Protein: Phosphoribosylglycinamide formyltransferase
Organism: Candidatus Synechococcus spongiarum LMB bulk15M
Amino acid sequence: MTRGSTASPRTVALVVPHVAPSPSPRARALRLGVLASGHGSNFAALVRASRHGALHAEVVGLVVNTPRCKALTRAERLDVAATVMDHRRYNSREALDRALVDHFRTLRVDVLVMAGWMRIVSPVLCQAYDKRLVNIHPSLLPAFRGLNAMERALAAGVRITGCTAHLVVPEVDAGPILIQAAVPVYPNDTMATLAPRIHAQEHRILPVAVAMAGRNLLNERP
Ligand code: GAR
């Protein structure tokens, strides 16, 4: 068990990487694409980690599916190119995913990150970014897959919950786990107190998961 540097005395995180995330000395910076639907705090955490040297990467583009979401405002402040692809303008999940693949291929993205992307993705996206599509989910998967994971963990009365970063496969929240962080649930917790505790750990583990997903890819290339 490791106590994170940002952990308060009441917040204990258990971080379980399966492989060391360090890139080879030859590796170039990863080009990251990010998908978000709402607040964009995980998107901002990836930009910060890239710019402060914690992650050998550059966030080259954000796509949001909800016009006027906070992630867009953050992208503007952080000077990251952002594009709106409103899912309601596409006939099917596959059509939206094809547009996403075209967009991120143009940006030569190595790893694509679903950072609060509240859409089910189709095999079109999973296959185009096979082993290079990372999702962050606010529970210790395989517990509480799907929507409202934190609310359901609270309602279930679990004493430990957390977050998971995993590779994406067509089955929802079911791909190989890269890294998880556990947080305690206290007796008087509400969403207002539990959510920030989980988000703080998401912001720590997501850059590590991205480095893990990108490592083999970069080491394979000249
Ligand atoms: C995060 O808690 C993330 O785990 C969750 O949405 C939130 C986005 O926060 N994702 C899911 O529930 C996906 N099933 P953010 O917009 O501040 O990064």
User: Anything to note?
Assistant: The domain at 9-18+29-220 is CATH 3.40.50.170 (Rossmann fold). The first helix runs from residue 41 to 51. The pocket of glycinamide ribonucleotide is lined by residues 36, 38-42, 115-116, 136-138, 149, 163, 199, 202 (CB under 6 Å).
